[in-house]
Amino acid sequence: MRHEINEVYEILSRIKLQLSQLSSFTSEQPSPSHAAKITLELFNCSTQQIIKQFKLNHGLVLNGEPSVQAVIAEDGELEVNLYKGQPLVYIYVNFKNTSLDTCINFPVAEIIYKGNLLESFIECTNDKKKLHKLHGDFLARRFLAGDRLFIENFKLATTVQANILKFYLLCVYNSVKYSTEIQFSELVTLDLLPKLVTSDGKKLNTREELTNWMNNLNSNKIVNIISYDDLILISRLKHNTSLVDESLETLKEKQPGIANFREKLSLEEWVGDAVV
């Protein structure tokens, strides 16, 4: 096993040298084909479809799920843009008390939604317990849509295993995003590495499965909200009905099912000098 890992490590080192010679791999701008795939799907939905599908006008409860009742109207101002940054890695996450301790967000779109507060929310009872039960704990105004991968027991991996998986993910991601073929040796497999798990619980056991997952992400008609940001406390909003009031304190992002995390990095920051 040790012999195989060292061979894989050497192979990935050679692949890194190939990637370093391709400046396009470090570009933050999505390729035309990458943009076209997403535009054909999410961007062809109507404003009302997007608001209803993602419940953008609902509050958010502590576990990152939408509230029972809406907080703002459905006729607000919607802005949807292609996500131009890198995937985001969350380290030491607490995800539903499972062994999934690392989360990688792969956003495809950034969404901003602004609307007027509903009269039903403004007139809602001052009973705090009922208020939170119906409308949640926060109202989000910025969203990231896409999908997520989790890593199982990544904190238990050896340094070599962790570094190989990091760079492996970066290679496959760049290969898919920039439509560039990378020659992987048959030795480069996921068998000896921490397991990658999709948001619906499926384990990706081969490079082909990982590549297909990333390809499907860009062409899938159904993406999910993977991050809520620019959060306002519902309790504060109840006593200050202007969403444009600069005195309203905003809180850091929340993600569905994730109670907390220790650190947030871009994919390239996380990979760092994993293979030297």
**What's the assembly state of these chains?**
single chain
The amount of beta strand, in percent, is 15-25%
The DSSP helix count reads 9
Q: How many distinct folded domains? A: 1
Number of E-state strands: 13
Give the ordered list of helices and strands.
HHHEEEEEHHEEHEEHEEHEEH
Helix content: 25-40%
Commentary on this structure:
It is a single chain. With 276 residues, this protein is of the alpha+beta class. The longest helix is centred in the first third of the chain and has 19 residues, at 2-20. Mean pLDDT is 79; it is low at 22-40. The chain has helices spanning 2-20, 32-39, 47-54, 119-122, 128-135, 159-177, 207-219, 234-238, 267-271; strands spanning 58-60, 66-70, 77-82, 88-91, 100-114, 138-139, 142-152, 196-198, 203-204, 224-229, 231-233, 250-251, 263-266. The strands form three sheets. Strands 3, 4, 5, 7, 8, 9, 10 and 13 form an eight-stranded antiparallel β-sheet that branches. The protein has one domain. The protein has nine helices and 13 strands. Helix 1 runs parallel beside helix 6 (159-177) and helix 6 packs across helix 7 (207-219).
Features:
alpha+beta; 3-stranded antiparallel β-sheet; about 280 residues; about 30% helix
